[in-house]
């Protein structure tokens, strides 16, 4: 049996008397990959903050032993000195600096009065080679894609003589090709004897990469088992505490007349070589869930931004809502036309992080609560907030709690509540389940069906083909700004969608 590189025993962490971790035990040997799975709010991130020194020794109970020595870290710098490095979902690179400057930031070579840039350059080349990244060390980080930035973060960790690498949702914003590259890098590190703790909601990645899978639920350690003994359904059952044989709870609902007609939608950024949306036309019916599929860069999000008046470049479209022509040049005009949109990047475009959950929800409809003398009817506002918090099952200690403290799934439900308060007839959901766990996904799917049963029409953009097929009544496929095909959901497969997205010509089934 392998000797433990890491042992965490009886870890207890509380906030204001409420236990977030209730005696967690994990073990990991050098060269092994341990995936930690759990719903949002289960305690995964809190446990990693304890391990990486974000929560210092003394702020938690229990014992951490690493490489045979007890860890009593007071900061991240202490754990990094021991070889424990964490890469967060939100990358911490300074985009205005070069790759080399980021890798050596705070750890420059040479005496204080003369930095040895030549040695740093050569060492950066060697580190980039280890992660199969063929770029110049002088490249500014802002010029790199998300996948390349992720690899730079790993190169930075390798420069710190990492023995244990913690990856928190590393593939949530990556393309399929970038995901394969990243997983291969982790396998390569494993061969070099570097241990890895991998946190992901993508269970296919977890099973493909891991030696061990640890499941945490509501701060409790449910089980740690060999990955070879588990299926995705096994992990889901442990995560949510119940069987989830049907991940996509399709429900029968009536589809009515055409509610939205879009004709010749076009969008182009200044200086772009081709339009991001190129004369796309389609219809949406009452009570329908219309899925939009396509590869990254196909123009899915840009098309939705045209409908919601939020596209940053030049755009045009002939839009009719319930047969009436609409000119939509702003988000306010879209909301007035009965169109609301939950954006792809919830943290950047969906929330005001330091503002309370409730006030985030009522931002688009503040005029609804304005009294005749200009004040806000806080009682009515509070009633609506509580109603929608309960209706969408948003878990929060208080409506006044800063929304940044909520889990990803609860943030997403709060954003959906924000736009439901505008009482839309058409709701656009752009990547509605990105970065959230299977339990929260299931709740959002149930909510979508509840909405269409009330007559709301939904357009759902998603990169997850099983989700597109499992939830949509009809699917549109885009490629390089054009509409390539449309399919009814019955008999639809992932291969049919991918073939349509890649091959020339137009498909209709």
Describe the structure.
By secondary structure, the protein is of the alpha/beta class. It folds into three domains: 4-240, P-loop containing nucleotide triphosphate hydrolases (Rossmann fold), CATH 3.40.50.300; 248-338 and 424-509, 3-Layer(aba) Sandwich (Rossmann fold), CATH 3.40.50; 354-423, no CATH class. Helix content is 32%, strand content 26%. It is built from 17 helices and 21 strands. It has a seven-stranded mixed beta sheet with strand order 16-17-18-13-19-20-21, sandwiched between helices. The longest helix has 16 residues, at 176-191. The termini are far apart.
Q: What is the CATH superfamily classification of the largest domain?
A: P-loop containing nucleotide triphosphate hydrolases
- Name the shape in a single word: globular
Tally of individual helices: 17
Which CATH class of the largest domain applies here? Alpha Beta
- Structure classification: alpha/beta
* Poorly predicted sequence stretches spanning 5 or more consecutive residues: none
Summary, kept brief:
The protein is of the alpha/beta class.
Which helices and strands, and how do they pair?
Layout: E1 4-15, E2 18-29, E3 33-37, H1 44-52, E4 61-66, E5 69-70, H2 76-82, E6 84-87, H3 99-103, H4 117-130, H5 146-158, E7 164-168, H6 176-191, E8 195-199, H7 203-209, E9 212-217, E10 220-226, H8 232-240, E11 258-268, E12 277-285, E13 289-294, H9 300-308, E14 314-321, E15 324-326, H10 331-336, E16 339-342, H11 346-350, H12 357-362, H13 378-391, H14 408-420, E17 426-430, H15 438-453, E18 457-461, H16 465-471, E19 474-479, E20 482-488, H17 494-502, E21 507-508
């Amino acid at each position: 049996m392998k000797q433990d590189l890491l042992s965490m025993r009886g870890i207890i962490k509380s906030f204001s008397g409420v236990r977030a971790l209730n005696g967690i035990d994990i073990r990991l040997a050098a060269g092994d990959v341990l995936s930690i799975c759990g719903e949002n709010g289960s305690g995964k991130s809190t446990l990693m903050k304890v391990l990486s020194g974000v929560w210092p020794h003394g702020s938690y109970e229990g014992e951490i032993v690493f490489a045979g020595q007890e860890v009593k870290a007071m900061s991240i710098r202490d754990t990094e000195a021991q070889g424990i490095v964490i890469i967060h979902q939100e990358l911490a690179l300074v985009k205005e600096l070069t790759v080399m400057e980021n890798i050596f930031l705070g750890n420059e070579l040479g005496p204080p009065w003369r930095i040895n840039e030549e040695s740093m350059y050569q060492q950066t080349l060697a580190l980039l080679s280890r992660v199969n990244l063929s770029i110049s060390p002088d490249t500014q980080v802002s010029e790199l894609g998300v996948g390349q930035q992720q690899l730079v973060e790993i190169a930075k960790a390798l420069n710190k003589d990492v023995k244990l690498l913690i990856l928190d949702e590393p593939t949530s914003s990556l393309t399929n090709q970038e995901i394969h590259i990243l997983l291969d890098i982790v396998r390569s590190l494993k061969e070099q004897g570097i241990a890895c703790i991998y946190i992901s909601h993508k269970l296919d990645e977890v099973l493909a990469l891991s030696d061990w899978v640890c499941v945490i639920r509501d701060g409790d350690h449910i089980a740690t088992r060999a990955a070879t003994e588990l299926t995705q359904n096994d992990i889901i059952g442990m995560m949510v505490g119940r069987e989830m044989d049907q991940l996509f709870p399709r429900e029968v609902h009536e589809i009515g007349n055409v509610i939205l007609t879009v004709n010749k939608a076009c969008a182009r950024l200044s200086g772009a070589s081709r339009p991001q949306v190129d004369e796309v036309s389609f219809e949406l019916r009452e009570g329908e869930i219309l899925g939009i599929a396509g590869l990254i860069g196909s123009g899915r999000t840009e098309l939705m931004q045209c409908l919601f008046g939020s596209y940053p470049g030049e755009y045009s479209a002939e839009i009719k809502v319930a047969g009436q022509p609409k000119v939509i040049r702003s988000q306010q005009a879209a909301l007035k036309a009965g169109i609301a949109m939950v954006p792809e990047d919830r943290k950047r475009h969906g929330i005001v992080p330091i503002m309370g959950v409730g006030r985030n929800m009522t931002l688009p409809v503040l005029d609804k609560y304005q009294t005749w003398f200009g004040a806000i009817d806080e009682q009515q506002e509070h009633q609506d907030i509580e109603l929608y918090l309960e209706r969408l099952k948003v878990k929060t200690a208080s409506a006044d709690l800063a929304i940044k403290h909520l889990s990803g799934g609860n943030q997403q439900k709060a954003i959906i509540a924000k736009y439901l308060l505008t009482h839309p007839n058409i709701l656009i959901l752009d990547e509605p389940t990105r970065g959230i766990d299977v339990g929260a996904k299931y709740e959002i799917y149930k909510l979508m069906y509840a909405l269409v049963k009330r007559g709301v029409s939904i357009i759902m953009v998603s990169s997850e083909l099983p989700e597109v097929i499992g939830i949509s009544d009809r699917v549109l496929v885009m490629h390089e700004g054009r509409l390539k095909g449309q399919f009814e959901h019955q008999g639809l497969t992932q291969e049919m969608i991918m073939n349509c997205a890649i091959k020339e010509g137009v498909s209709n089934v």
